[in-house]
Amino acid sequence: MISGSNVRIPAHYHGSIVGVTLAFMGLAYLLLPRLGFAAVPPRAARWQLWLYAGGQLMHVAGLVWSGGYGVQRKVAGAAQALRSTEEIIAMGIMGLGGLIAVIGGTLFLVLGFIAVFRGRARPGAG
């Protein structure tokens, strides 16, 4: 049960939004060739989705773990007053997961732009 004003609340929000975002990323990969653009190579798409999903899973897990120790939301930096090694490790996992997710999100944009700018797909492709 989520209670209080700690970082478990944004963990829940992030987890919900990530599921929807992954669905739309997959839909984009499906629709690009059907709209006449080049198809994204399946291996690259899988890597991108796993990077984004794995990074966000770490991000959410770090937030939940930190929230269990009472780390407050809507504060950052020294104002967080991380008191224990566990809190610092959990917030580190959250940050590392966020970085991995940003890499996955950036890869999605790169793959999408390449597919669009590569031009129209050949007939019968996709």
Description:
This protein has one domain. By secondary structure, the chain is mainly α. The protein has helices at residues 8-34, 42-68, 85-117. Helix 1 runs antiparallel to helix 2. The chain starts with 7 loop residues before the first helix and ends in a 9-residue tail after the last helix. The mean pLDDT is 86. Helix content is 69%, strand content 0%. It has 3 helices and no strands.
Structure keywords:
126 residues; mainly alpha; elongated; 69% helix
Tell how many strands the DSSP assignment holds.
Answer: 0
Oligomeric assembly: single chain
Which range best describes the helical content: under 10%, 10-25%, 25-40%, 40-55%, 55-70% or over 70%? 55-70%
Describe the sheet with the most strands: none
Low-confidence stretches: none
How large is the share of residues in beta strands? under 5%
What's the helix count?
3
Domain count, please report it.
1
Element-by-element helix/strand order: HHH
Q: Helix- and strand-based class?
A: mainly alpha
Rg result: 18 Å
> What's the N-to-C terminus distance?
45 Å
What is the approximate shape?
A: elongated
Quick structural summary:
The chain is an all-alpha fold and about 130 residues long. The chain has helices spanning about 10-35, 40-70, 85-115.
